[in-house]
Design brief:
The chain is an alpha+beta fold. Among the domains are: about 5-175, Rossmann fold; about 190-280, no CATH class; about 725-800, Thrombin, subunit H, CATH 2.40.10. The protein is built from 14 helices and 71 strands. The chain has a five-stranded parallel sheet with strand order 2-1-3-4-7, sandwiched between helices. A four-stranded antiparallel sheet has the order 8-39-38-37. Strands 9-10-11-12 form a four-stranded antiparallel sheet, with no helix packed on it. Helix 4 (about 60-70) packs parallel to helix 5. The radius of gyration is 35 Å and the shape is globular.
Length: about 1000
């Protein structure tokens, strides 16, 4: 009987039938990447069943299909709106589900929405429950089928998508992760292209077989191939950064850039500069943790710990070794064999003086010197738990006895029998803070407390359930907590029951008991500040209780089970890590999550440690450990002076000074950029500052306050020169050189000459306005009313020069020299020649939700910011769409051009900014917040909360130099070069 890897079920109509044929052929001809083939033991898919090809001529068609379903490992259902109408497909799903379970059914969506294309047999599975009376009821539970999506405009587009989406179907069939399969498949393709193209090109160039023209053609082909490799490495760099391997990400981005930009050996690609900028954290302004180093292992990791000085970290790996790493650069320092495949979390630790690592081994226990890598001592015997005495002098080991060991020599000081153990075993072990007591938890539901000074058992405590999972002493030594759990092994869906019990550590008297009937609980921790406060976990929840009153103070719920919990030494914060890869921080002062500190790694967290400004996490699934650090941008200067969050800021025209103002004060701060100091603080304003800037001569400051006053100040003396009221306003605009300001008031528009501090124009015909803006030369003002009519005013005369009254408009933009005007409305965008007011182009884009527009530096392109945070670029002459710019967190506010128009900076509504190559709209860098950039593109003015930040703007060479400085001697190893297909 044939054994099939998969059975393809489909409706025998088009395009379902053609897709089924293509899928069948692609599955049976797929070659498994060698790295995955070695793990799974197969190089290709064996057999796939599709009824048109595989059925014998039989009078009993249904019987033949049933036999094939019995002998198929997986069922692949090709889904379209036609699928739920096929009784044959529905019967195949039902039959396969009964035979092999719902988990082995895969869906391939080719048309329609999932709700209309996935049959109910795919989306729902029956679940039986038994109530207290023994009555069995059945209900349908909705599930999300594992699906690949190849929907497209036509069969050609669907077939193209199938080439990549087929990997989603292959991953479960091959028993590997989709991301791993995708990466290996792509690497194989890149390696093939690079190897063939470069080898052929170099061969012909070396032997001079071709003419000069042919040689040039070959060089172009080599450049094209190297460009492709650079793009691949850039993409891989960004991927590694997201995965938490910042330093390798830097190395790959460097590899993708030319060594010498003057005489490049490979083409320059902006993607590599962007990847390096991101990996370098060149423009990072916050203090938050970043995953700096990924530590790769060959097998899963069960534990990770940071040394007290933060210079080292060890990982316990399932390959039978403990690895010691340098936290500065990720260098592997030593490996120590414990010679077994599993050591549970908490059974390995640094000694208190940081000179050794102590751990259980397959033979007993051992200690290793972390400087020399040599073994200090070994003990033979069966021990199931180990604990470090806080005095740093001894350790405890448990078997059927409790052993106290000298940590320096491994000499046993004494041993005590563990009473009432019978055939049970020790489940947990914990010293109190001064090492005078040690508690032992067993699987017989007992907690035994021993006096280590007088070498005797003090008392025995009965726990609610058998398994005493973990123990804790309060920091003052007066209380002891034990967690015990019970699991119903007959019910695989049971989360168990849990109990937290607290006793007096002095006499064993009961103080509190907390029962949980619906889940197990773990990790009791006493607050370092208050021994009445106890933290513990209940599956996905971290709970905080008052042990005296039993009051539940806080509950912090997560999306997956909490695996590791740490309370900071000051007792102010809880740090919780979950299996879904989240690390969350909570305040014990107010019970709130500090959500801006939340971290995420894309693999489940198996173990976590925190100390000395570092966080270390380990994952058993991905065989990786990560070191997180508080990294900020290099060469960044923080200036203090503000007491509240900074609102905005501007450079002077010569870039030697800058001013800033915040949200709460009636003050303007003036800074010396070269000296990086506060020059002066301008006060005396009668309202909070809304806006401020230097005048064109850099000798005066112009301020606008919430009280509606424009004021002019002498910079040298900080004396007020003059002021003019704008009145109550809802919005305002400046012209390009900052000499005029227009204000939207209750009944219209008011235009003020800033330097003369006088009103030059009042337009009182508008109660509601969609947009208003100055022309590029500042002579005209465009007003778009609520009805969609646009009027162009001469500022000096107040006359309407031209009106646009038949288009229903909402937004406008002038180019730099005011020769072009763009107007966005309900039926698209219209471009006008300002000399004749004739329409020169219509961009047909009805219902385009435009929030802002701007012309590029020379007026050849129009940048249109939409309410979905994208920026659409159109050619002004033809109206053709050119590019879509993405990456902003907020809608586009305005654009800045520097370097003679070669550098474009797009700035979002709250300052998030992206740097682009203005000639091809390729992304160069991304910055959380920009207030301004000087006219020479050398210095960026930014802020973080109440701090003013100055940072350099990096060109490509500066980025490379800074990266090399951070990396030190770290280079890609030969193994890494092979892994990432870097051919030298």
């Amino acid at each position: 009987m044939k054994k099939y890897e998969a059975f393809i079920s489909y409706r025998h109509t088009e395009p379902d039938k053609t897709i089924a044929e293509k899928l069948h052929k692609m599955l049976e001809t797929f070659r498994v990447p060698s790295s995955i083939a070695k793990k799974i033991g197969k190089r290709k898919i064996n057999r796939i069943f599709r009824d048109r090809d595989e059925l014998p001529t039989s009078s009993n068609l249904a019987s033949s299909i049933e036999v094939a379903l019995i002998n198929a490992e997986y069922l692949i259902v090709i889904c379209s709106p036609r699928t739920p109408q096929s009784q044959w497909v529905l019967k195949e799903i039902e039959t396969f589900s009964k035979l092999h379970g719902h988990g082995k059914i895969l869906a391939l969506l080719i048309e329609g929405e999932p709700s209309e294309s996935f049959p109910e047999q795919l989306r729902f599975i029956p679940k039986q429950t038994i109530n207290d009376d023994g009555i069995i009821t059945e209900e349908l539970i909705e599930v999300e089928p594992l699906a690949a999506d190849i929907r497209g405009k036509n069969l050609k587009e669907m077939s193209k998508k199938l080439k990549t989406e087929i990997l989603r179907l292959l991953a479960p069939i091959l028993g590997c992760h989709y991301d791993d399969l995708k990466q290996r498949h792509r690497e194989r393709f890149i390696k093939r292209v690079v190897t063939v193209s470069v080898s052929a090109a170099l061969f012909f160039l070396a032997f001079g077989s071709f003419s000069a023209w042919q040689a040039l053609k070959l060089k172009l082909q080599v450049d094209k191939t190297l460009r492709g490799q650079s793009l691949y490495l850039s993409d891989l760099s960004k991927q590694l950064l997201e995965e938490g391997d910042r330093r390798t990400a830097m190395l790959l981005a460097l590899e993708a850039l030319p060594i010498n930009l003057e005489h490049p050996e490979r083409p320059y690609v902006e993607e590599a500069e962007y990847a390096l900028s991101q990996a370098l954290a060149a423009y990072k302004t916050d203090y938050y943790f970043v995953s700096d180093i990924a530590l790769n292992h060959r097998k899963g990791i069960t534990d990770i710990k940071i040394s007290d000085d933060g210079s080292k970290v060890f990982t316990v790996c399932n390959d039978g070794n403990i690895y010691l790493w340098n936290t500065e650069n990720g260098e592997l320092l030593h490996s120590f064999p414990y010679d077994t495949t599993f050591i549970d979390e908490g059974n390995t630790f640094f000694t208190k003086d940081g000179t050794a690592i102590v751990s259980l081994t397959d033979r007993g226990a051992a200690a290793w010197d972390i400087n020399s890598g040599t073994t200090l001592w070994e003990l033979e015997g069966y021990f199931n738990h180990i604990a470090l005495n806080p005095d740093g002098k001894t350790i405890a080991l448990s078997s059927d006895m409790l052993h106290l060991i000298d940590i320096k020599t491994g000499t046993e000081l004494f041993s005590l029998p563990i009473s009432n153990l019978d055939d049970g075993y020790v489940y947990s072990l914990q010293f109190n803070n001064d090492g005078s007591k040690i508690a032992v938890g067993t699987n017989n539901g007992l907690t035994l407390v021993f006096d280590t000074i007088n070498q005797k058992e003090l008392y025995s405590l009965s726990c609610t359930y058998e398994y005493v999972y973990s123990l804790a002493f309060s920091h003052d030594g007066n209380k002891i907590a034990a967690v015990s759990n019970y699991f119903d092994t007959s019910d695989p869906l049971s989360k168990g029951k849990g109990s937290l019990q607290i006793w007096s550590a002095n006499d064993g008297s009961a103080l509190a008991t907390i029962h949980v009937d619906s889940s197990s609980i773990k990790y009791p921790i006493f607050s370092p500040k208050d021994s009445n406060i106890v933290i513990f976990t209940e599956d996905e929840i971290v709970r905080v209780i008052n042990a005296t009153t039993k009051e539940m103070l806080y509950s912090f719920t997560h999306g997956d089970a909490v695996h590791s919990v740490i309370v900071t030494k000051d007792g102010d914060f809880i740090v919780a890590a979950t299996y879904d890869g989240n690390i969350q921080f909570y305040s014990l002062q107010n019970g709130m999550e500090i959500d801006w500190w939340r971290l995420y790694q894309n693999t489940p967290i198996r173990s976590m440690d925190m100390g000395n400004g570092l966080i270390a996490t380990a994952s058993s699934n991905a065989n990786k450990a990560y070191i997180w650090k508080m990294i900020e941008a290099p060469n960044l200067t923080r200036l203090e002076g503000h007491s509240t969050s900074i609102r905005s800021g501007k450079f002077s025209n010569d870039g030697k000074k800058a001013l800033t103002f915040d949200y709460d004060e009636s003050a303007i701060y003036v800074w010396d950029i070269e000296q990086k100091t506060l020059i002066s603080k301008l006060t005396g304003l009668e309202g909070v500052v809304v806006d401020a800037c230097f005048d064109p001569t850099d000798t005066k400051i112009i301020s606008l306050s919430e009280d509606g006053y424009l004021r002019l100040w002498e910079l040298s003396t900080l004396k007020e020169l003059t002021s003019i009221p704008a009145g109550e306003f809802t919005d305002y605009r400046y012209n390009a050189d900052g000499t005029f300001a227009a204000f939207q008031t209750g009944d219209g528009i008011k235009v003020l000459d800033i330097l003369q501090c006088k009103e030059v124009l009042t337009i009182s015909d508008y109660s509601f306005i969609s947009d208003f803006l100055f022309s590029g030369n500042g002579n005209n003002l465009l007003v778009i009313d609520w009805d969609g009519n646009a009027y162009l005013y001469d500022i000096q005369t107040g006359e309407i020069i031209h009106s646009f009254s038949d288009l229903i408009l909402r937004k406008g933009a002038f180019n730099k020299d005011s020769t072009l005007l763009a107007l966005a409305g309900e039926n698209g965008i219209y471009l006008f020649d300002m000399s004749t007011f004739k329409e020169i182009c219509h961009i047909e884009a009805p219902n385009l939700s435009v929030v802002s527009m701007a012309f590029n530096y020379n007026g050849s392109d129009l940048l249109v910011g939409l309410d979905d945070k994208t920026i659409q670029v159109y050619d002004v002459k033809t109206g053709q769409w050119k590019a879509e710019l993405t990456g902003h967190r907020n809608n586009l506010s305005h654009c800045i051009y520097r370097e003679a128009g070669n550098l474009l900076i797009t700035i979002g509504e709250y300052g998030d900014s992206i740097f682009w190559n203005a000639s091809n709209y390729k992304k160069l860098a991304q910055i959380d917040r920009i207030l301004d950039i000087d006219s020479h593109s050398k210095t960026i003015l930014s802020s973080h909360n109440s701090e003013v930040i100055l940072m350099p703007h990096y060109d490509t060479n500066a980025l490379k130099e800074e990266a090399r400085k951070q990396l030190g001697n770290r280079e890609l190893s030969e193994e890494e070069k092979i892994k990432y297909y870097i051919i030298e």
